[in-house]
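Format notes (please read before filing issues)

Several people have asked whether sequences and C-alpha cells are stored in separate files. They are not. Every record keeps both together, in the order shown below: the sequence lines, then the C-alpha cell lines. Line labels are part of the format and must not be stripped during preprocessing.
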Amino acid sequence: MFRLVFIFIILIIAAPSRTFASDFPPGFVLREPYIWPVKGQSTITGTFGEFRTGHFHMGQDFSTAGKIGIPILAVAKGKITRVQRRWTSIGYAVFVQHDDGMTSRYGHLHKFAPKVVKQILKSKQARRFKDRVDFDIALPEAVPVEKGDMIAYSGDTGVGPPHLHFELFMDNIYYNPMHFGLGYTEAESIVFDSLRITPQTSRTFINGKNEIVDIPFSSMGGNKYELSESTISIQGKVGLQIATHQKSNNHRLGIFTLDISMGEQLLQGFQLSKILKNHSRKNVMLYDSSISKANGNPFSYFLHTRDGNDLLGMLKPEREQGLINSENLKLGEQKEITIRAKGQGGQEGFASFFILRDQRDYKDVITKEWTYNVYYDRYTTFKSKDTRVELFFPVNAVYSKAFFDIEAKEDIKIKTDGLNQLSSVYEIGPDFKDFNLGYDLYVKVPKTKDINSADLYEVMPDRTVKKIKGSSFSAWGQFFKVRLRKTGLFVVLSDQTPPAIYLHESMTKPLYPREDFTLLLKAVDVGSGILPEGFDITVDGIRGKAEFSPKDGRVEIFEPESLYQPGKHTLLASVRDYAGNWSPTVKYDYEIESPPMPIEEKQVIAAAEPKITTPVKTETKSKKTEQPKAVKTKSKPPQVKKKSTSR
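Then the structure lines:
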C-alpha cells in the first residue's frame, strides 16, 4: 500500500502532461497556446534536449513532408528583429521577438518573406545577403507580425534534410516548445530498447564479470517492458543507462522525463523543460556519447549523476546520485528496479527487473586497474615516443577524467590517391567523446616544398581522409596545430590533386524556359575540399558568383543577373580547393527562351490593324480607291523578371 501511494506522489510531481510554473521563465504567463509553425503539417521529427553529436538539441524539429517552400508561420504575435545565414549549421534563420517576452528562431529556411527581404536590403550587410555568404543581421526596422503570419518558406539549408528547426529562449535559457502548445496532444508509444550496466570501479562485478553488460528489453504488452534476464547480480558500485525512445511515424523521439526507483526509494530522475545556453555541450552529462546517435538508434541516458553535472532539471544533482552499491542491499533479498519514461502527448512506459547482491569471492580474479592521466580540474601535456606529436589538455578539457596515449601507426596506408604523406599516421586513443573544451594537437613535419599545400587530416575507418577544419601552420616551429574534441587517427598530407567541376545532372538541355531557371554545376575534391569562395566564373564574359553546398557538391550560379535573360549564353567556370589547386575550366553553352507575347498585347495589335476590303464597283464615276496602309503598333518588349535572391 505504501509503495502505491509513493508511486502516485512521484507521478504527480513529474507528470509531463501538466505544465508547472518552473517550466516557464520567471513571471511568464502563457495566455494562449502558440500555433504550429509549419502550415498544413502536424508531425514532430525531433524533440527538445535530444542527443546530437557534441551538443544538446536546443529546439524542436517539425516535419515539412520532405518539401521545400512550405509557408513558415509566426507562432505568436511579435516582430522579426534578426536574420542569419549559417551555412554549416542552421542555414537561413529568422528571429521573432514575441510580445510575451519569448524569442523564437526558425532555421533551415529556403527563403525569407518579402517584407523581411525588404529590410535586409536596407541593412549594412545587404551585400553579404546578395552574395550569399554567412551573415547575422539586425534588421534596421523590426517587421511586425501577427500570430499565424507567414515569415519564411521551409527549406534544407544548413545541415540535414528539409525540415524546420524551431527554438524558444529568454535570458540565455532555452525552453521546451512542448509546454507552449507545440507538442503532440496524442502520440505514439514509448519503447524500451536495452539496459546497460557499467562497473564504477575495477573491482566491481556484474553477473560475475568486471565489464559492461548490455541486456535487451522485451515487451510485456501495453506500456510495460522487462529484461530478458530478470535478475542481475552485482558486487560493488554500478551505474545504469537506459536506451529508450518514443515513436513518431518513422522517427525516434527523445524522452521528456526519466526516473529510476529501487523498491520504494526514488534514486534519480530528470526532466527536459529547459537548458542553459552555456550547457549546450554538456549533453554528455545526460547521454552516453560513446553509443548514442542523433537518429535515436539509440538514445542512451545515464540514470545517475556524473561528476560536474549541474544541468537544469536533474532531480538529484549531487555527486553519484542514482548509482547502486551492493553494500546497501541485504543478502539474499532481491530489489525491484523500476524505470519510468514519459514523452509527448502524456505517453509513458515502464521497465522493471530485479537486482541481487552477489556474495561470491573474487579475490583470485585478476582485473585491470583503471588509470587516468587527464582530469577536468588540471592541465596536462605529453608527447609521442618520437616527440613529433604533442597533446595539450587545458583545465576543463574533459568533463571528468580519462586516459589517453599516442601511437605512430606505420602500417596504415592512406587509400586516397594524389595525396602525399608528410607524417606518420598517429593514433590518439582510446575512443573518447566526453570532451568539454577539448585539447590542442601539435604535429611537427620536416621542411619540404609541399608544405604550402599541406594540412592536417583525419583518417576515416575505411582509410579515406577528411581535412580537419580550423588547423593552422607555424613556419617558425614547423608544426600544424588544431583544437580537437575527438580521438582517432591523424596525419599530415600534401594535396596536389586538382578538384573537378562539371555540369549538374539537371542541366541536360541546351534550351530552357526563363521561368524558374537555375544554372547548376557540381564540384568535388578528393583531398583538402572545395573552397566555398574559390570559384572563378564568367557568363558571357561578365564576372559571376556562386553558392556552394558542401552536403552534395551542388553549385548554383546566381550572378550576373544577365544569365537569366532570353538569348544564348556561355558559362565558363573553375574552382580551387583549400590547398590552392585549380580545376580545369568547364564550358557550357545554353539558351533561355523568349517568353510568349501576352494575349492582351496580341489583341491590342490586332485591333490597331484596319480591316482591308475589296473596292466595290458602282455605276457612278469614282476615283481610284487607295487602300490605306496598315498601322504598325509598337509593342513593348517583355520585361525580364530578375531571379529572386530572397532567402
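For reference, the curators noted about this record: The longest strand covers residues 224-235. The two ends are 61 Å apart (CA to CA).
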